[in-house]
Amino acid sequence: MPPVLPDTSQVEKAITELLREEEIGSIATICADGTPSAATMHFASDGLAVYCHTFTYTRKYAALKNNPNIAYALAHTPPEGFHGRMKVRSVQVTGRATFLTEQADIEHAIDVSREQFSWLQDSNMYDNFKREGVALRQVFFRIDPVTALWADNRVHMLYRTLVTFTPDGKNVASLAPYDTKAAA
Q1: Distance between CA 135 and CA 165 in Å, rounded?
Q2: Which residue from 98, 40, 41, 44 is spatially nearest to 69, judged by alpha carbons?
Q3: Which of 40, 60, 94, 120 is 20 to 30 A from 28, comparing alpha carbons?
Q4: Which regions of the chain are under pLDDT 50?
């Protein structure tokens, strides 16, 4: 009997849970000369949107100022490694990055980060964001998802599906089979 495949609401819930459980992933940006650049980041999620923090002197900042198209990947690998392979799940997202400039948006990103990461509870890492008139070298950006590849071995080994999000990035709009011939 074939496995029961998840519907859009189940995939949306699973992606949202992964984004809340996993803290560190990688982003990919495109530099001004067209070359790709990857970086490891902390991700704080608010539904399907994620917030990242960086500095204005980084190459990812320069790349995103030039081109807001971005991709990221997050994965859950069970502590038992290979023996836990039926619990592996991951998401590879393409999206658009927006730098936060409104104080209310920045405060929201800080709140989401502090809620998700216990190590931030007693940190003053983001205090500069609350000081008026300070020329900040730190910035937050939000990534709104456009498309994704969702992989979830809990459904069945090597289960993959292509995900399209609603235009506002707040929900999963549709799922499509992952065709390895088309991906090659």
Answers
A1: 35
A2: 98
A3: 120
A4: 184
Q: What is the pLDDT of residues 106-122, one digit of tens each?
A: 999 999 999 999 988 88
How high is the pLDDT of residue 184?
46
Longest dimension (CA), the chain: 64
SS3 per residue for the chain: CCCCCCCHHHHHHHHHHHHHHCCEEEEEEECCCCCEEEEEEECEEECCEEEEEEECCCHHHHHHHHCCEEEEEEEECCCCHHHHHHHCEEEEEEEEEEECCCHHHHHHHHHHHHHHCHHHCCCCCCHHHHCCCCCCCEEEEEEEEEEEEEEECCCCCCCEEEEEECCCCCCEEEEEECCHHHHC
CB 99 within 8 A of CB 64: yes
pLDDT of residue 182: 53
Kindly list the structural domains of the chain, giving each domain's residue range(s) and its CATH number in brackets, ordered by start: 8-179 (2.30.110.10)
pTM of the complete model: 0.91
Any residues with CB less than 8 A from the CB of 177 and at least 6 apart, and which?
A: 161, 162
Predicted confidence at residue 69, as pLDDT, reads 97
